[in-house]
Design brief:
Blueprint (H helix, E strand, L loop, with lengths): L1 H19 L3 E6 L7 E2 L3 E4 L5 H12 L7 H9 L6 H7 L9 H8 L3 H4 L4 E2 L2 E2 L2 H4 L1 E5 L2 E6 L13 E2 L7 E4 L2 E11 L1 H5 L2 H4 L18 H17 L18 H7 L1 H7 L12 E8 L9 E5 L6 E6 L3 H16 L4 H26 L1
Parallel strand pairs: 10-12, 10-13
Antiparallel strand pairs: 1-13, 2-8, 3-7, 4-5, 4-9, 6-7, 9-12, 10-11
Helix pairs in contact: 2-3, 3-4, 3-5, 4-11, 10-12
């Protein structure tokens, strides 16, 4: 019995090593004429406001005869970055500050129509706010084009290839982008996630607030859970539902010191996406008195990409084991029946033979 157990354990261990050995193989491809490349998603986020906008918002919320110090509170809540000095200096001592942070932020920030105008894709005009869709991020609401993370799906087809040429997106500051692609063979999707060390967009089962997987989505949820572990809450810019709620009492922001406290408990183990693209470029900008003109342009189409293969699939495993058994042991498909007979039937036959002499 110990001899059989040894070989069963040995086969299981050998099979595990065979599956995990040299699972990923990356090769370089240069057949770029047939490639379709997705233009990168672009987000426009308002990170601060002019004082006139803050004053108008504060007047709508608290009236013209308000304490003017409340304006600082409105600004720091509307453009929250993890710290709120005004919450401690003003709200604790002088003024009763409201806790409806989401409403304050929405009222203080400008709309898409005010933020983005004169949009063009490859010199074709398109409606900005039908394609720059709202997206909640850690730094506040943004407007994003060509992203899988928006609730509404992208309407503008932003794929570039040898027929369309390099893509150019402009909206009312020049960035040339060089692209290196990473592609995957179909066999990569069949491999286990722990073996290939990457995830595809549809493999978002571990994410609670995002339907599609990306590295940024994973890190965001990691930080959200870190905040929740501290105080069973999260700040008002986070995408949260269910028991994860925004701060209800302003003191929590101050006493928990959200930014340094959360950074101290970050333990993110996020995998990179399986289909990724590396964008590199240099940034320059120019402004006039009223607006900034933004150009995001690919200097050229990608001419090289890396393709990931799985060197050992499940079929390869069975073929390899079958070949080894056939070569060294003369085994075949009939050997499966023989193994069952050897382990179970033969044992029972011997037990019956050992009983028969005593019956005589």
């Amino acid at each position: 019995m110990s001899f059989r157990l040894f070989w069963i354990v040995a086969c299981i261990i050998a099979t595990k090593f065979l599956v995990n050995y040299s699972l990923r193989t990356v090769v370089q491809e240069t057949s770029y004429l047939r490639w379709n490349t997705d233009f990168p998603s672009v987000s426009v986020c308002e990170t601060d406001a002019d004082l006139g906008g803050i004053e108008t918002t504060a007047e709508k919320l608290f009236g013209a005869d308000r304490n003017v110090d409340i304006d600082s509170y409105v600004r720091e809540i509307a453009f929250f970055d993890g710290e709120c000095p005004a919450c401690d200096e003003i709200c604790k001592n002088e003024v009763e500050c409201p806790g409806n942070f989401t409403a304050i932020s929405a009222l203080a920030r400008v709309s898409c129509e005010e933020l983005i105008t004169d949009c063009q894709w490859n010199e074709r005009i398109f409606d900005c706010c039908s394609n720059f869709l709202p997206l909640r991020t850690e730094i506040g609401p943004c407007f994003t084009i060509n992203s899988i993370q928006t609730i509404e799906k992208p309407k503008l087809n932003m794929i570039v290839n040898s027929l369309t040429g390099p893509g150019t997106l402009s909206f009312l500051a020049s960035r040339e982008i060089f692209v290196t692609e990473i592609d995957n063979d179909l066999s990569v999707r069949e491999a286990d996630v722990s073996g290939r060390k990457c995830r595809f967009p549809l493999e978002a089962s571990d994410l609670r607030e995002h339907d599609s997987y990306s590295y940024a989505a994973c890190v965001t949820e990691c930080r959200l859970l870190a905040q929740n572990r501290l105080c069973n809450c999260t700040h008002h810019f986070m995408r949260a539902s269910g028991e994860l709620m925004e701060f209800l009492v302003i003191v929590i922001i101050v006493e928990f010191q959200v930014k340094p406290a959360v950074e101290s408990v970050y333990r993110c183990t996020c995998m990179y996406p399986g289909s990724d693209r590396l964008f590199n470029g240099e940034f320059s900008a120019y402004d006039d008195d009223f607006h900034s003109k933004v150009f995001i342009q690919m200097q050229n189409l990608p001419s090289t990409r890396f393709k990931r293969y799985v060197s050992k699939t499940n079929i390869d495993l069975f073929v390899t084991i079958g070949g080894l058994l056939g070569l060294y042991l003369g085994a075949s498909l009939l050997s499966i029946v023989e193994i069952i007979y050897f382990l179970f039937v033969r044992k029972d036959s011997r037990a019956q033979e050992s009983v028969i002499p005593f019956l005589k």
